[in-house]
Amino acid sequence: MPNIAPTIARQALRIASRRYPSPAFARTAGAAARRHYVSESKSSQATVNVDTAIKQEQRAFLDKTGERPSDATMPTTGMGADAMMSPSAGILKQATVMDQGSRPIYLDMQATTPMDPRVVDKMMPFMTGMYGNPHSRTHAYGWETDTAVEEARANIANLIGADPKEIIFTSGATESNNMSIKGVARFFGRGGKKKHIITAQTEHNGGGQERGLRSGTLAPPLAIGMGEAARICKEEMEYDTKRITALSNRLLEGLLSLEHTTLNGDRERHYPGCVNVSFAYVEGESLLMALKDIALSSGSACTSASLEPSYVLRALGSSDESAHSSIRFGIGRFTTDSEIDYVLNAVKERVTFLRELSPLWELVQEGVDLNTIEWSQH
Is 90 helix (H, G, I), strand (E, B) or coil? Predict the structure, then answer.
C-alpha cells in the first residue's frame, strides 16, 4: 500500500519556514530560553512568569506577521500556528501520521489520545525546574505551584460552568467514580439503614487535601495540564466538533458503501469521534490483525483485551454475530483527511479479502438466506 509521505507536520513546517523566515524561530532552548521568576514575598502575592522557547517564538510570530499564533492556521494541516509552533508538535505528528510505513495510523482514540502540544508545554516547567509541592506553604516553591494549580482549577470550572471550589482533582476516572459511589452510599445511609462499603483495614484518611475529599499529595503537572486542556477546549471545542463531524461523515459514508455493513448506534445521536461499524461475515479480530498499519479496537477501551463480544453493543440490541464483527474507529483533533482516505482504502481492501475466505460469504453471494439454515453442533 502507498505510504503517506512526506508527513503533514514536516510539510507544514517547511511551508511555514518559507513564509516566515526568521532566526527567531530557531529552537535554541538554552539557559536564557527557559527561565522562571517567582515572587518570594508571601503566598498571597506569588506570581509565576515562565519564559520559554515556545513563548519567545509566539512573540516573534506576532511581530513578524501581525497575527497571534492562536488566530493563524498553518497551511495543509488545519492546526493553529500556536499548536504547530510547539516543540512537541513534530513529535506528535511523527507518532500519529504514517511515515515511510514505520508507524500505523492511529484511530484508537477511545483507548487514549495524543496530547495537545500546548498542554505538554504547559506541563513541562512543572516537571523540571518548578517542582514544588503545592501544599508547602512556607516557601516560594510551594507558592508558585499552588498558584498554577488554582489557575488550572479555575480553567476547568470555567469549562463546565462550575465553581472552582467544586473541582476535586483525583488520580483519574476510576477514583472519581469510586468517590461518587461513596457519596451516594453516604446519602442513602442517612435514611437510617446502615450502608457498608468494604475497604482494606489499612485504609486511612490522609492529610485532608482537596477539601478532605481526596487526601494525598497532588500531582501538579497533571492538574496544570488538565487546566490548560480545559482552556483550549473552551476556545476550540466548536471548531473541533465541526471538523471531527466532517471527518466522521466522510469515514462513515465510505465504510457504509460496502454491502452488509452497518453503523452501531444512532446516525444522528452519536458522538462523531467514535464510529463503530459492523462488517458482516468478517471476524472483528481477524480484521484488526489484517489492518496492522492502522491502530484500531473492537471493544470498549476498558475491555479491549477481552475476546468476548462488546457488552455495550449487545445492550444496544446488536446480536453476538454483529458485535463480533464490529470495529471502532476513533477520530481526534489531529486526524487528517489523508489518514481517513488511507483508512477507507485499506479497510475496503481487507474486508473484501477476508470475506472471500469466508464460506458464509460464499453462501450469501449464492443467494442463500443464512437464517433458514439449521446448524448442527459437533
Answer: helix
DSSP 139: S
CATH number of 243-368: 3.90.1150.10
Q: Using DSSP bridges, classify how beta strands 105-106 and 274-279 pair: parallel, antiparallel or unpaired.
A: unpaired
Neighbours of 154 (CB within 10 A): 16
According to DSSP, residue 213 is labeled T
Q: What is the DSSP string of 290-345?
A: H-TTEE-BSS-GGGTT--SPPHHHHHTT--HHHHHTEEEEE--TT--HHHHHHHHH
CA-closest candidate to residue 239, choices 339, 106, 333, 108? 333
For the record, the C-alpha cell of 73 comes out as 492556521
Whole-Å CA distances, 126 to 43, 131, 332: 18, 5, 27
Considering only CA atoms, give the Rg of the chain.
25
Q: What is the mean pLDDT of residues 48-72?
A: 69
pTM of the model: 0.60
Distance CA 287, CA 375 (A): 25
Cell 505551584 found at: 145
Tell me, yes or no, if 302 is annotated catalytic.
Answer: yes
Indicate which residue of 32, 162, 302, 357 is catalytic.
Answer: 302
User: In the numeric block, which cell numbers belong to residue 331?
Assistant: 477520530
Asked if residue 300 lies in contact with residue 310, where contact means CB atoms within 8 angstroms, the answer is yes
Q: How confident is the model at residue 234, as a pLDDT?
A: 95
| Cβ contacts of 102 within 8 Å, gap of 6 or more | none
128-132, 183-187, 256-260, 273-277: the lowest-pLDDT one: 183-187
Which stretches does DSSP call E strand in the chain?
35-38, 48-51, 105-106, 261-263, 274-279, 294-295, 326-330
> CB–CB of 116/232 below 8 Å?
yes
Name the residue with cell 452501531.
Answer: 264
Q: Report the alpha-carbon distance of residue 210 to residue 213 in Å, rounded.
A: 6
Torsion 246-251-257-262 (CA) sign: negative
